[in-house]
Amino acid sequence: MLGVHVSACTESSGSKYIASDQSLLEKSEGFIDAFYSFDSGRLEEHLLSDDESAAAMLYYQGWAEGGNYKVLHRKPCEVAEPNLIECSITVEDDPILALGIDFKVTDTFHISFAAGEISSIKTSSNDPQIYYQARDWVKLNHPDLIEIPCKKLFNGGPTPGECARAMTEGYAKFAASADFPER
Question: Which domain of life is it from (predicted)?
Answer without folding.
Answer: Bacteria
